[in-house]
Amino acid sequence: MQDTLIPVLPTMLAEGMILLSIAKPILLVTTFVAYTRYVARFEADARMFNLPVAAWNYGYIGAAIIALAATLLIPIFWIGWIVAIAILAGTMLFYMNFRNARVPAGRQFRLGVDNFAKAMAARKNASAERAASALFTRADGTKEPVPQKEDATLATYLAVEQILVGPMSARASRVDLATAQGGVAISMLVDGVRTKREPLAPEVGNAAVDMLKRLTGLDVSDRRRRQTGHCTIEGSTGKSKLTLTSSGSSSGQTIRIDFDREAKLGRSIDTIGLAPAQLEVLRRLEDPKKRIGVVLVSAPVGQGLSTLGFSLISRHDAYTNNIKTLERELLYRVEGVDHKAFAPETGAEDYAAMLTKMIRRDPDVVLCGDISEPGAAKAATLMGMAAPLVYVLVPADSMATAIATWMQAVGDPKTATTALVAVVHQRLMRTLCPNCKSPFTPAPEQAKKLGIPTGKQVELFRPSGKVQVKNRVEDCPVCQGSGYFGQVGIFEVLSLDDEARRLLSENDFRTAYARAVREQKMIQLQEAALLKVREGVTSLEEVQRIFAPKQSAAPATAKTTSSS
Hints:
This protein folds into 3 domains: about 20-100; about 135-265, 2-Layer Sandwich (Beta-Lactamase); about 265-545, P-loop containing nucleotide triphosphate hydrolases (Rossmann fold), CATH 3.40.50.300. Helix 2 (about 25-50) packs antiparallel against helix 3 and helix 3 packs antiparallel against helix 4. A hairpin with a 2-residue loop joins strand 2 (about 175-180) and strand 3 (about 185-190). The protein is built from 19 helices and 18 strands. The chain has helices at about 1-20, 25-50, 55-75, 75-100, 110-130, 155-170, 200-215, 260-265, 275-285, 305-315, 350-360, 375-385, 400-410, 415-420, 445-450, 500-505, 510-520, 525-535, 540-545; strands at about 135, 175-180, 185-190, 195-200, 225-235, 240-250, 250-260, 295-300, 325, 340, 365-370, 390-395, 420-430, 440, 460, 465-470, 470-475, 485-495. The radius of gyration is 38 Å and the shape is elongated. By secondary structure, it is an alpha/beta fold. A 7-stranded antiparallel beta sheet has the order 1-5-6-7-2-3-4.
């Protein structure tokens, strides 16, 4: 027997050395060290809340002895080690449940599984946000969560993205929605040109409208009253502030969404497109001795009338002049200017009374944002005769229409023209994309129309919308192939003297207009547009687009319209 064992003894000892793993004692020591560290924290916690510290210490020691015995007595180490961990973890869990039932609310321990679940939820939310094309911050400053794939509201969220993300990428200034039984019609405005987009089906479209109203802090259930709210959208093109205006009727809701409206309204008078001669006429009104009377400010609807009005009052120093405004809605605030919104209420003073009260407080400059209310125009002209300089905003397609509207609102042509000192009419036109505009030499006939002397070589530009990338011709990344980027104003500025006022009071706009062109060298609207062509700001094609459509006829009180 001994002779048999002697030859194999070295082999058995060698196998025993191989089977002895250094990892096992390391795991065992690590487990008990971790346990003792948690027990030390639990002891301090028990003392803080006056729990039975001694009893729990005996329990911790007993659990450790049982766990150690399990690892030594169970033949298979891995099974014993798992049993030991279960004993130690069970003891700690038992203490947590014991103390959570006896400590104040909010001081309970939470299992790591809760944190893990929160981490997983945060990870899913982050993944959803990365997949989303747009993220929203509500009117109250909180973030709108992005729905998960299984969420029923995901279709609505995607519909809102469809409404806004494309127009943002296309540099749209606004998006308009119109709800009806057949669905929600969508259109966008890019550089003053309206483009229809794919409509939404009724169910998802109406849900998207409700979500937009909720994001901007509006009353979703109110589908008739005019409401205005704000929220923020962030996408691949950057962050924008949305201004949503909703109103409704029996046929459905209309929603207007402006992108960064306030930033677009705040323009310096030197940057809106006025020619130097036109600026000089308006700067004369800054003289305190000439800062009196009424200035009519007009533009077609959607052609920057509010921006023009704010630019005109901002050229007056708000810290040395008392400047006030009376507006239907506070679209923008000029620094130092006292803006006031008119909100019609039953039994409250009307617009004309509020305007009269404002002017009687001796302001230097007043901006009147609306003359549609009865008596508002008459109040403005009567006060403009003796006290401040009053800018009156009049939506109109031409200067002649603006003057006719003004005289009709006042009610008496002589009274209406007595305080008039100037009329400013604006129209917007697109400017050429600086990245892709294409130069060319005009034909002699084109040069003659532009007032270019015969034989003088002038380089003009036309829209391209294309750029060459290596050997390929692609859409311009700046204007996205349209050939235009942004808008600029073209103006007529009519300065009135006694003779011009007399002609206008007799409804002879044509003679007053022709006299201003002849004697004052007044720049006409088409002339202003062609000057922009000569300067390389816009194109002949854009001038043709602006002036080719038929203009709406002026009211019968005017004999003719301006050359626009």
